[in-house]
Design brief:
This protein has 207 residues and is mainly α. It is built from 8 helices and no strands. Helix 4 runs antiparallel to helix 6, helix 5 runs antiparallel to helix 6 and helix 6 packs antiparallel against helix 8. The longest helix has 37 residues. The chain is elongated and about 85 Å long.
Length: 207
């Protein structure tokens, strides 16, 4: 008598049934059968987003040509986006600049003189004055700097609220969402550095 040996011998039919059950358990545990090597390699040869689909079993040269074409299309799209920042072409602007409400916010800010655009030059001038070895001048520059920051904060807050209200009245709340904050950030930039470039002259307010 041998220990560990089954007392009841299994018939060939029982052995086949046990193998089928074990195979079913392996399949159900993963939810799907293990893919073959050929299927895995085909899945790894997915085409790039926006590229023309490659045929099954594409050669190395074909895949290389598809990648090169995709890079060229991406470069062309980036060039159009850069040009749109200068011309204001809505079709190729970044998503954060698109829409009539954002265009309205840009035109509103660009048509007026904003205290925020003088913040950096004014702060630099005040800091230079602080190097004068005079206690009275140093004290004055301290109050000047914080005074400038205060009036800029008030001015940009007013711009934010007004642009948001006007944009909501003109385009609706959904399209106007975020237009006030967008205008506030633009008001803090120097006019010549703003992107997209200003499309209106000072005093030419949007209607």
């Amino acid at each position: 008598m041998f220990f560990g040996r089954s007392k009841t011998p299994q018939t060939p039919q029982q052995s086949l049934a046990d193998l089928q059950k074990a195979d079913l358990r392996r399949t159900e545990g993963k939810g799907r059968p293990t893919p073959s090597r050929k299927e895995a390699e085909a899945r790894n040869r997915r085409p790039l987003v926006g590229a023309a689909p490659l045929r099954e079993g594409a050669t190395k040269e074909e895949r290389k040509a598809a990648k090169q074409a995709h890079r060229e299309r991406m470069a062309a799209d980036r060039a159009k986006a850069r040009e749109a920042l200068v011309t204001g072409d809505e079709r190729y602007l970044p998503s954060r600049d698109k829409g009539p409400a954002r265009r309205f916010a840009r035109d509103y800010v660009d048509a007026r003189r904003n205290l925020g655009e003088y913040l950096l030059p004014g702060a630099l001038l005040i800091l230079l004055l602080g190097f004068i070895p005079n206690l009275a001048v140093k004290a004055a520059t301290f109050f000047m700097l914080y005074g400038l920051m205060l009036v800029v904060i008030v001015d940009t807050f007013i711009i934010r609220r007004k642009v948001q209200r006007l944009a909501a009245e003109k385009f609706g709340d959904d399209q106007a969402r975020g237009a006030g904050g967008y205008a506030m950030m633009r008001a803090l930039q120097l006019r010549r550095t703003r992107l997209p470039h200003p499309m209106v002259e000072r005093g030419q307010f949007p209607h």
